[in-house]
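Much of the work behind modern protein science is quiet bookkeeping, done one molecule at a time. The protein below has been through that process, and both of its lines are reproduced in full.


***
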Amino acid sequence: MKTLLPLCLALLLPLTSHAASVTSCNRELHIEQPPQRVVSHDITLTAMLLELGLRDRLIGYSGISGWKTLEPRFAEQLAGLPELSPRYVSLENLLQAQADFFFAGWNYGMRVGGEVTPASLAPFGIPVYELSESCGFIMPGRSASLDDLYADLRNLGRIFAVKARAEALVQRTQARVATVRARLPQGEAAPRIFLYDSGDDRPFTAGRQAMPQALIEAAGGRNVMQDVDASWTAVNWEAVVERDPEVIVIVDYGPLSAAQKRDFLLAHPALQTVTAIRERRFVVLSYLEATPSLDNAGAIEKLARALHPQAF
């Protein structure tokens, strides 16, 4: 009887549950148990999972080698992990990998009306968590915020039962941002900033729904394209000239180096009257720094030093 008592008591106790419910864009996402076979898209989303200590849950990733180069710190961690697709992952890729979770975003691995979406994966039992910054593609009127990054970290912490680690990362980032904000000069006009990602005929830049909007604001600047109700988008060179940015931020990734992009801008005939061109004021951000990631704190520090050198 004594030997059966512990077993009987154990049967009466509730099973340990790690169920989590989070908001993903305009959906409520419910996860019964932490996913074990995870696929992530893009280096920025993959890096977020690595920072949360979830390398052992990853069975593959997509969307990196087709556009970007892995930084050494992440290349080492991802060694031996297959890239399911150099650009956009397919439904077949995910099914063959037997994925039980996909971390992606709109225009970060998923396209409206495309083959891979939360709705298309649901019948196959593959839940999707959407990068918050990307929700603007399906939820017009949003503005990017650092709260998007914090929400993603906390939601992933709930989904994977690593809430303490997620909260520590959030608080560390918030502290660094608060330190910058405390040193920003008060009562001065915010310097006008234009972000240049790429593009010859039309520049690809960040509207108010893209993360650079939040980074520039936190660093005491003003995104000259903040009136554009879009995320990452193309504009006209005329719009850049009209807004006369004082500083140009270059995103360093893709087939052209940051130096090549700078030289292209300096030589562009339409830009010769622009203040940033005449004064040769540029700031270079890596892809990770410019998109939602824990590198955002470093991007804000870098921008603030460039925009307000007297304060830093």
Notes: Residues 60 and 82 are 5 Å apart (CA to CA). The longest strand covers residues 101-106. The chain has 13 helices and 14 strands. Residues 6-15 have pLDDT under 50 and may be disordered.
